[in-house]
Design goal:
Helices cover 30% and strands 25% of the residues. With 120 residues, the chain is of the alpha+beta class. The model has no long low-confidence stretch (mean pLDDT 84).
Length: 120
């Protein structure tokens, strides 16, 4: 399963996403089951690029979802002032406001089914 993760507030020059990327990339429990990339979205016409816009996460095993949820919840807990995270997959978006790992896991599971948007 592949997720794109961005933030609702892009005014921080991508600092929150860079921090999230570094957190996920350095998580030993995700190392063998998850591919993590930091990507810059293509700039709109007349706009300058440069800010990180998306953390792309590919889970290579279904069991990695629980580990990803734990890692996202831990990042939220240690970055309480960071903007909410939006996770996108299968045409669905969920917004993560919480640092509760079980709630984050349920939100990410909602992305398995198209048109099942949720917030938490």
């Amino acid at each position: 399963m592949e997720f794109r993760i961005d933030t609702e507030d892009q005014d921080d020059d991508g600092e929150a996403l860079l921090s999230l990327y570094q957190w996920l990339y350095g998580d030993d429990t995700l190392e063998r089951t998850t591919e993590v990339e930091l990507r810059e979205a293509a700039p709109e016409d007349g706009a300058m690029g440069g800010a990180w816009d998306v953390v792309n996460v590919v889970l290579t095993h279904a069991t990695a979802l629980a580990n990803l949820a734990l890692a996202l919840a831990a990042w939220r807990r240690t970055h309480p002032s960071a903007p909410p995270l939006n996770a996108h997959a299968n045409g669905t978006t969920v917004t993560v406001h919480t640092d509760d790992p079980e709630a984050v896991r349920r939100l990410l599971e909602a992305l398995n089914t198209p048109d099942s948007g949720a917030e938490g």
